[in-house]
Amino acid sequence: MDSSKKFIIVSVSAAILLIILVSCTLAYSGRDNTLMSDKSLHFEINGFSVELPLSEDGAVYDAVSLSSVTENKIKLINETGATVKVNGKGIGAGTTMNLKLDSLSSNELIKITVDNEKDVRTIYLRTLSSQLPQITSAGESSYEGHYYTALSTGGAALYELNNKGEVVFYIAKSPEEAKGESYCDFKKHTLEDGKVRYSYQRIYGDDEEIGYASGERVILDENYQEIKTITLAQSELAKEGDPIDGRDFILIDDNHYIVAASQLVLVQNVPESLGAGTMGSKVVRTLIQEVKDDKVVFEFTTDSHPELYGLSVTGNDYGNTASQSPDYAGFNRMIIDPADDNLIVSFENLNTIMKIDRETGSIVWKLSGAGDEFGLTDELKTSGQSDIELTKDGYLTIFDNAVSSGQTRILKIKLDEVNKKVLEYHEFKVPGHKSSANGSAQKIGDEIEVYTIGWGQAKEGTSGISEIDFNTGKKLLEVTLPQGVSNDRVQKIK
């Protein structure tokens, strides 16, 4: 064989060998040996999608949700062609790791490194989202339980606080992520079988026709992972999937619950003396719906009780001259009375709290308002009340915004329901604290006068939550929020 042919054979062989070596090296490494400035990491953290650009080394980002009371589930969605580590622990595409955080703090960061041997990026996640407002706490509660609430103004966020007022769990979205949605009525449920559930209202960002926290109820398991959402069930009064009202929700077990909805309807039963339209009146009625095993077992509507129209003090434009959707009743709270399994419901625009028979839908009694049946004087009646609770020893507690007098107060009342008499009436006021809406009050324990108070849309100061011992006149815990930011209802739950 001549030398030229040998040279060609050797050159071709060398080229083939080089191609094989390069291919094997790339196959072995599985790496993308390019700069990562135009790439992103896609995570799912506690069920929420999070995209983290790698354009800036050392950048700090927010997670939508993190917890220090349970492990956080972090899943890497996309293939990066690089080694990815979260707090020093490797994670591959499509895999999930559990991350335990001892605390949530603006000073605590989660470190994420991305290395493809040619380029390295280090980025961080805040453990406490910058989308949460500045929460300042003083004092410490000696009574068991955590505080659950959501922002009613100031962003799309909900959070849980421990007895020191420290955030231990949150969901918080930026305006771009929220796209108009917000949250309310975040709370914990302990079911009869001991299961723990959490729930909150996800308020639709594109539904402003009626408002009233219209959206869906989100149910979380004991690890704060979303397991289902709830809307209205099919019935003669509702379509399946119609939005529900977020101002309250009762979870009895995983397949048994009570919801409420605000529905715009045209009615023909408004008395002419109240200025009803000649062809009917458009009103917002309250629908209360109980569902068990996917079947509606009870429904109540305010418009089926025409006597309520005349009790309204707000939203009673029955001629629709100024409003095409007057909310004449103003539902805001409901609880089950364990003594008879009936519902006690608060309607702020009627200034009335009433008991509703959970089988027949009849109104058993009305407390306060123009239709009061317990002999309350005008001074004792509530005005725009926004929360009710029942203590274990049978007292009804009320957060009374007292819009007629301007002095917010907490009431504790003992009723004789048979004879419709007030047996005890206690009133608590806090100097310098007034609220116009969304306030709440909850008695802690039965033998003490300690209350957890959520100030809602406070008219004075920046207090968000107070825990007060009215026996001693001392505050045990005070949580403040920035000016212009307010909480929805606050509940303390063990």
From TrEMBL:
Q: Which InterPro entries does this one have?
A: Arylsulfate_ST, ASST-like, Quinoprotein_ADH-like_sf
The UniProt entry, under PROSITE patterns, shows:
PROKAR_LIPOPROTEIN
Superkingdom is Bacteria
Record protein name field: Arylsulfotransferase (ASST)
Species, as recorded: Acetobacterium fimetarium
